[in-house]
Amino acid sequence: MAACAALTVSLSAHAVITIEIDRGYDNPKKIAVVPFGVGAGIQGLDNPADIISFDLARTGQFAPTPAKNMLSLPDQPKEVLFRDWRVLGDEYVVIGRVDPAANGNISVSYFLFDVLNERQLGTGGTFTAQPSQLRDMAHLASDEIYEKLTGIRGAFSTRIIYVLALDLSLKTERYRLEMADADGARPRTLLESKEPILSPAWSPDGKSVAYVSFEKGKPVIVLQEIGTGARTILTDFPGLNGAPAFSPDGRQLALVLSRDGTPEIYTMNLATKELRRVTRTRPPTINTEPSWTADGKSLIFTSDRGGKPQIYQVDIATGLTQRLTFEGDYNARGRMLPDGKHLVFVHRNEGVFHIAVMDLERGRLMVLTSTSLDESPSIAPNGTMLIYATQDKGRGILAVVSIDGTVKYRLPSSVGDVREPAWSPFLNRTRG
Asked: Is the pTM of this model over 0.90?
């Protein structure tokens, strides 16, 4: 019999997130992430244990033990007393330290233990970087711990981008393209504009983003380097220029243009800027919201060619097209999971828009969300979670749900209306 539990985690002094977990027969693993020891002279930094605990908790697969309940606070392997953790029912224990390092750096070290078998798992890890990068080091530790315990690559070191709309309907109305950690922390502005920004998309190497800008009084597609801020306008055709999506190898961009009349799907070779039209429907219909399959050979897209918006797949080489969704009178914004067997999309159910996932082999559809006006789903690179935009008290916010629908939480947001999230690919980060 399924039950529901909630875990409240403090992300910072200003943000508290409640994680809702609908538990089935498999309860989350109990894990203790002990507050890390801190070396002399280190002050004013977050404790990595708080970040690691939150990372693991928001997967729904782990239930961290509150520090106030811990019987001991070891920060060295020789100090771990397994009986202390057995009493609390913990299956795993993480300990660690933050210490000064050369050239003004700090080092973050951790060790992972299996309580039941009273042994250390692996050799642990040590990361060295500037104090300002402590969160990065903690997320890297979370990635390694998660992979050791689940066999699935962690995605805690990834980023999200989203659009923040401020002062809507006022003379001061403006839009920001924001980037933050995957847990919503450390937001920073990549672009601010008086005109709308739409459809941000990551390049596969995580170094650039493409988006739609109205800076010229009409939609154009812009490519922007994250590191330098350098911007290039890729398309400025009459009519619609929209919905950019990078191919898996980063060499092409799928996009929507209406230069030939109605919106159609095209691909652009980013090296030569050569365009190729992919969809051709007679009579003309609206074809939009392209995304790529993992092999780069097909595009998933939304079309009203059947009378109402449904999701289709087209083979780029042959043009062969098949309809993927049939249940419901509105299905859009399709995104394929990395396994190529499941499709995530916006599904209208009884007049309300929710996020759904469908098993393409069995044709089974499951609605994942129950909030209001859910839209713009974007999948984590390890395929376990997705982020989407929704409404809360009339304001746009971001929320996250697991692919099986059992874990849900909302990300903290400042003033403004948050929309159009996109989850980054895996980012190549290494130990210092």
From this structure: yes
